[in-house]
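Incident review: delayed structure delivery

Summary: a single-chain prediction request sat in the queue longer than the usual turnaround. Root cause was a stuck worker, restarted by the on-call engineer. No data loss occurred. The affected request and its eventual output are reproduced below so the record is complete for anyone auditing the incident later.

Affected input:
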Amino acid sequence: MTRTVATATVLDGLRAHGNDYSAVERAFRARTGLALTAMALTGPAPTGPALAGPLDRMPEGISEPVSVVIATYNGARSLAGTLAGLESQLWRGFEVVVVDDGSDPPVRRAVLDAGAGLTVPVTVVRNSVSLGAGAARNIGLTVARGSTVIFLDDDMRVPRTMTGLLALRQQHTEGCLFTGFRDDTGPDVFFAPDGVHTPRIERDWRWISDRGGDRYLLTTADRDVPRCDRTSFELVKESRYYKDFGRGRVIGFWDLPGMVSSHSLCAKRADAVAVGGFPEEYATRWGAEDLAFGALMAASGIFVVPAPEWVSFHLRHEGRRVPRAVERARLEQAFDRYRRMLRRPLTERRFPRHRLRRTAAAGRQGVECYELVP
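Output delivered after worker restart:
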């Protein structure tokens, strides 16, 4: 008689793995003398269980190869601010990969103009037709040369310490997905010179949230999560910087994958490829591919760790507002796809193969251009 062996699903993996990365913290402190979740160069570092205090300079000896991947769709204006933030980085051992997901007009010229001050390698990949955020990020992963990849949206003005401190973390840890935070703002602040304004972590909903009573924001795997009447949460602190979020634990309406947002993510390239990258089945519809990516990583035993000093200004797009009912319907569709994915075998996903070809010279030294082969 043949025995049937059940294949572990993504949900099984989420329930089996904890997220207590205390041992990683201790090893990181032993190697660097720094606290994994409390590093800052200037000003007070966010309070936390492992506070080491602010740093007075960028640590020496950072050698981790880093690729910064930015997926964009008709985002040339905000992309200029994102590239400006990368120009000001204190540590320069990184490359920039911009994936133009079917923008009209193409963003290549905008990248050349806005990134004229970048002294790091730049690669621009053009998709003639929009494939969606998940596919665009996977194409960036395909091109990326760094062993560490930082994913950014095209409307994030990052702090000048971002690349260096994330490279330091990844250089001295294994199996960690680091998440950043955002402070929504308008164009006057977003496009201001660096140092004029300081983003505040408490404006990110994961730090202080008052959205607990909104049923449509449910992101957990279980539709029947117990009712929660609370309307205010401090998710980072309540979960001990995500350590208590493992094994399927829920706080209010949120679980560990819900802490993962694609606007600011940092992972080892090999880890991201091993889980199949970002799910592409969401195509151009309203996303949740970042939520799914977080679930795949956590279910594979990757720790999800906040980087509290990584707070970026996010440009509000006033003209993109949609009716609340439409937003609700899109989110519900995305979450339905997400929950179906959670019940599939964890091992069935494979990293998509995207064929690229090099195009004519970009017109500036240090810039390479590619296009997706249909």
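Verification: The two ends are 48 Å apart (CA to CA).
Action items: add queue-age alerting; document worker restart procedure.
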